[in-house]
TrEMBL record:
<dbReference type="InterPro" id="IPR029520">
    <property type="entry name" value="RdCVF"/>
</dbReference>
<dbReference type="InterPro" id="IPR013766">
    <property type="entry name" value="Thioredoxin_domain"/>
</dbReference>
<dbReference type="GO" id="GO:0005739">
    <property type="term" value="C:mitochondrion"/>
</dbReference>
<feature type="domain" description="Thioredoxin">
    <location>
        <begin position="1"/>
        <end position="188"/>
    </location>
</feature>
<dbReference type="Pfam" id="PF13905">
    <property type="entry name" value="Thioredoxin_8"/>
</dbReference>
<protein>
    <submittedName>
        <fullName>NXNL1 protein</fullName>
    </submittedName>
</protein>
<dbReference type="GO" id="GO:0045494">
    <property type="term" value="P:photoreceptor cell maintenance"/>
</dbReference>
<dbReference type="InterPro" id="IPR012336">
    <property type="entry name" value="Thioredoxin-like_fold"/>
</dbReference>
<dbReference type="InterPro" id="IPR036249">
    <property type="entry name" value="Thioredoxin-like_sf"/>
</dbReference>
Length: 207
């Protein structure tokens, strides 16, 4: 899926980071079902739909809801009138969303390629770039996160039976050492108790 944006720039939501290298794009998009969300923070229909899409995405990718994030990515293709409007909208959306930079001409090419004439529209793509659903807005409204399983099967994703290093946050990395720290603590306590017992025994013999 990174091939769709080869040579292009994507912006990480609410960050100054710009994903432009092949490695960054591959890590963010490859082996995932990709949603292209065409919308605007000012469009009344989009304002009604955006909270549903936000909840849909979070319930599939946020650790509060799931133990492991689903293989799902989203790129926001904006019809906002100003860059400030685009930023304001994205600040209310999940951090894992990516966005086409405001004013990028590639937006028009994507609209033509996927026959997007009205917003909101959500195009669902396989990792290969093939279309799974031309516009999933109504499906997301009706079925919510349950529709992802059908998309996942259609996309024939390679199941991840382990989590990559970048999937772990600081807390998860620390958790690897927790059992070792607990074991060391128990051993130290045993040594301390044994030493104290020996001291008491020596004092008893001396008296």
């Amino acid at each position: 899926m990174a091939a769709l944006f080869a040579g292009r720039l994507l912006v990480a939501n609410r960050e100054e980071e710009e994903l432009e290298t092949e490695r960054e794009l591959s890590r963010a998009l490859d082996n995932k079902v990709l949603l292209l969300y065409f919308g605007s923070g000012q469009c009344p229909r989009c304002r009604r739909f955006a909270p549903l899409l936000r909840d849909f995405f979070l319930r599939l990718t946020d650790e509060f809801y799931v133990e492991r994030a689903s293989q799902l990515g989203l790129v926001y293709v904006s019809r906002d009138e100003t860059e400030q409007q685009q930023r304001a909208f994205l600040r209310t959306m999940p951090r894992r969303w990516l966005a086409l930079p405001f004013g990028d001409d590639f937006k028009r090419e994507l609209e033509l390629r996927f026959s997007v004439s009205e917003v909101p529209a959500v195009v669902v793509l396989k990792p290969s770039g093939e279309v799974i659903v031309g516009d999933a807005v109504e499906e997301i409204r009706r079925r919510g996160p349950s529709c992802f399983q059908g998309w996942r099967e259609a996309a024939e994703l390679i199941d991840r039976n382990f989590r990559l290093a970048e999937d772990f946050d600081e807390r998860s990395r620390r958790s690897f050492t927790d059992p070792l720290r607990r074991l060391k603590y128990k051993l130290d306590k045993k040594k301390e108790a044994k030493g104290q017992a020996e001291e008491e025994e020596e004092e008893g013999e001396a008296s």
